[in-house]
What does this fold into?
Amino acid sequence: MKIERRFTKEGMSPYEGISMTRRQSEIRNPDGTAIFRQDDITIPENWSQVATDVLAQKYFRKAGVPQLDEQGNPQLDEKGEKILGGETDCRQTFGRLAGCWTHWGFEHNYFDSKEDARSFHDELCYMLANQMCAPNSPQWFNTGLHWAYGIDGPPQGHHYVDPASGELKLANSAYSRPQPHACFIQSVADDLVGEGGIMDLWTREARLFKYGSGTGSNFSALRGAGEALSGGGKSSGLMSFLKIGDAAAGAIKSGGTTRRAAKMVCLDLDHPDIESFITWKTREEQKVAALVSGSRMCAKNLKAVLAACHNHTGEDVVTDIQPKTNKTLASAIRAAREVAVPEPAIHRILQLADQGVTSIEFDEFDTGWESEAYSTVSGQNANNSVRVPNAFFEALERDAQWDLISRTDGEVIKSVPARELWDEISRAAWSCADPGVQFDTTINEWHTCPRDGRINASNPCSEYMFLDDTACNLASLNLVKFMEEDGSFNIEAFRHATRIWTMVLEISVLMASYPSAEIAQLSYEYRTLGLGYANLGTVLMRMGLPYDSEEGRAFCGAITAILTGQSYATSAEMAGELGPFPAYERNREGMLRVMKNHRGAAHDVADNEYEGLSILPMPLKADSCASTLIEAAKSCWDEAVALGEKHGYRNAQSTVIAPTGTIGLVMDCDTTGIEPDFALVKFKKLAGGGYFKIINQSLPPALTRLGYSDAEITQITKHAVGHGTLRGAPHIDHENLRTLGFDEASIAKVESSLESSFDLQYAFNDYLLGENFAEKTLGLSGESLEKWATQPLKALGFTSQQISEANEYVCGTMTIEGSILKDEHLAIFDCANRCGRKGVRFIQSDAHVLMMAAAQPFISGAISKTINMPNESSIDEVRESYNLGWKSMLKAVALYRDGSKLSQPLSSWGEDFDETELPEATSNMPQNLEKVVYRYLARRRRLPHRRNGYTQKAIVGGHKVYLRTGEYDDETLGEIFLDMHKEGAAFRSLMNNFAICVSLGLQHGVPLEEFVEAFTFTRFEPNGIVSGNRSIKMATSVLDYVFRELAINYRRRHDLAQVIDDDLSSSSLGSTPEITEEVEQPDGNFVGIPSAASTSRLAENDGGMKKASTSTATEEETLSAEVISRAKGYTGDPCPECGSLTMVRNGTCLRCDSCGATTGCS
It folds into this structure.
């Protein structure tokens, strides 16, 4: 193969002109602990800090690399041996990748000359350094380690086919032949323990998960529940085995080497267990809801029963477990039974009370993505898809029955109405985003090797679809890097890059080893590739083309046609020199038919010129796209078909559109794969730590192309991101702050935080301004001082309207809606979700489907993409999206309705229930009955029988401490329980009685602050290091720890925390105090309790009803960390690796923008 130089010059370094810099890379957990840190790494200067962090943390080899001095010579120790360490320079990583590919290509005659091999190597180094393309993660992990550094290890059971002899061999080294493939499809037979059977599949999956790859399988061969077994008896059915496989995948994931959703489960629509499969995840989500609510109700009621068993008479405690004589106990038991607490559980509590137990620990679950509730249920470690043939849609149109077929004898087991089954699929997808749909007939009509079997399944992200027991390695081109300054697209550079990266992926098949003999053999015979692209949404925005437009779809179709046409032309060119893939001859007719259908779509031929298609593709339309792109697409496909007819093809498949998760971050892509952008305002990570707020970098060039002046662009930008200063702000400016008592130093501190502030309120706090600033400097007291902790601007006397207007000026609206942007240009900047608090626009679900339809006719495999739907979408809309996907000739559709997972907070602003909208509770009291309230001084304020609170487990000096709080209905503290695990009876009893004493004090009006002042800094054993608490890391005693914890949560005494909220954040926004409406103290049955007795635990989010947020400035909003995350455009889910709330939709998976982790396989 002849390789021209387009980006480099012969005799010069491929990095010539690329400015390098030294940086530090650090990734932290939300609790402030460092996950990763590496100093003094060399990176291209124009790379972002996120790209730097991902390369350094995930892709730099950490051991076994010879260390070099400043002259590039190996460093030696005192024994004269090479000093080994990790990679510290990006050029080491780029060099080992490009060098390894070039080495294998040169050794196996892929190049015409050494000069061509050198050109190949240099062009790759240049493209990697300039973020023009990136291979999938396993390439970065494994490729070149043996070739560049001599790293080796014992074999891991992998296989390969010797390219010279065609003989299948067992690999004798772990690294000499790397595993560069990310995507696998594996078969499973209806056999329990035999080779290729069910239990064998779990082992094969584990081998893939261990090395970070993803796999999918079609389980339709397994017999359904109740079908006969060969030895007699009945089968337990498909679902029982799927649950085993799901648990196995989850266990390996929890070991840290794979990620959630690295598995795909496919099932044909005629399987006997299809109905159970469709509703599987819906039922599991219901179980999570039941676990969460049930655990809380059980904990609350069982503890109430236990407390009622022990009556306090003066200093004595009398235990009475007989409901007949203990009326309080009878009421507690009755309340427990009303919420269906199991009778044995109630009886067990009575037995414990009779044995002297005064407190219990009962785990309470939550809906967190990584919580015990989700890990307890099944179905959480895979994407599920049903395979739907055209025959089903025909039955649907006739409103006919759909037969479910026995796997043992082929007889009809059951017939169900097709419409009901389709409704069930739509309802399940609406409820929990699964199952997705794969259109079986369309997939197999575009199958290039139909003689060798059907396509049954896909990889986890649904872009790779081919025969069972095959693999695919991916790479993606960054479309933005082929944009010229004038807004045109550099077609020739794009074709050149496509040609070189097609060769890279083909060489990767040559050099790879595979986790099983079957996959090694079939990968050798078919040589499937997965070249794709990323950043389409960004390119469209920069070009001024709406994502939802004929022009946008035409551009997508043309670029995709050029990509695949050029890739197949390159494959045919390689076949001319190296021969076609071994299975080509018997599949020649079928493959050329598919190639001609691709070419027909590029030429927009008449319908009757397509061959073997039930549904026709969306062709390129010359009137909606630049002629240069259309002509290039036609030329590529003419060449691909002509060369294929002459030489055949080296690869059975060449392209897919992958989600480009982690590798998208390495390339600094704003959008992944074929997805649109998710937000107009981004939070950019700084090299020195922290974040600052910037406008989407696609917006300024797009506005320039649309004819807006620099002044207008600045005005639109400021509308979205704000001015970042109080200078010139309405109502809340420097002059007004001076009037209120702010000095120049405190104003400067506020100003320093505004550029990254999500809300103006967050810039006014004691962390920033200093302890007791409001009291000592501003002179606040009483109610105003209390309000300062949660609503500082209201505490200063500003109204909601004034705060809202100032907030928009300083922090922006995070949307361009309402700016001076012309209405006809709004669609260009639409994102996948609504932007900011006031944004109402978003890309409609049909637009997602149609964009996929524009690309699918020119893709070998399929497209990994999520159809985003707002929370208010109906089941009918889900059904229509699936129908449109089928009619548009897509191969697969996955959708996600906002809020369809219990673990995910709603992205919408102002859609919570307003308490004023809820119906009034009906009263059972007789009419005309007057309420008489008697008030007493220093009388006990009784707690409600059902009370809220929280349980905190920690270890103080090696001793487990359990703290449980009880709250009044207004969320003030009323009681505490203390227990220490495995301590002596005397000490435990003492702590229990101390807790009772404190509780009685709180209930009789002693301010919590008095206890805090009395018992913090007390010193006795056990003491020392504290683990298990996010804010307290050291305590001088158990009481010191307890009252620090209570002060932080109920008095907002963060001065007593060793780790403040800012240190716990994943961004400069931090876990800032929620902004909530003040809760009025109820008119209680006593007086004499100071208002400072205990402050509402505002930092805790108890999941209760909150006032709805509105775009008007009539009320303050409650902003949790999850809601802030959603407002920034993220999903609100925590990253499974670093815990940050910076996950974004990434094809059918999720990707973390903080550390680069992905729930998929790229």
Notes: The first helix runs from residue 49 to 59. The CA atoms of residues 416 and 530 lie 39 Å apart. The first strand starts at residue 20 and ends at 28. The mean pLDDT is 85.
